[in-house]
Amino acid sequence: MENAIKAALQDLTITPIDAARIQEFIAELRSCKNISPDRSNKLSFTLIT
Fold first, then answer.
1. Number of domains forming the structure of the chain
2. What is the phi/psi pair of residue 14, to 5°?
3. Structural domain for 18, as ranges
């Protein structure tokens, strides 16, 4: 997930604010809904694109 966010930032696909919000959203889901790492990766890729 971190590599995808870094790549999207370098390509200017997302802004630093977008990256922070994606990370915050995924962290919230991990803590509240106990999602798997695979699910968090899928969600982050979906949000980036």
1. 1
2. -130, 160
3. 2-48
To 5 degrees, how large is the angle CA 49–CA 4–CA 35?
A: 85
Condensed to tens digits (0 to 9), the pLDDT of residues 24-43 reads 999 999 999 999 999 999 99
**Per-residue CA distances from 14 to 23, 37, 38 (Å):** 12, 22, 21
Angle between helices 16-32 and 2-10 (to 10 degrees): 170
Residue 14 has pLDDT above 90, yes or no: yes
Report the Cα–Cα distance between both ends of the chain, in Å, rounded: 13
Phi, psi (degrees; rounded to nearest 5) at 42: -60, -45
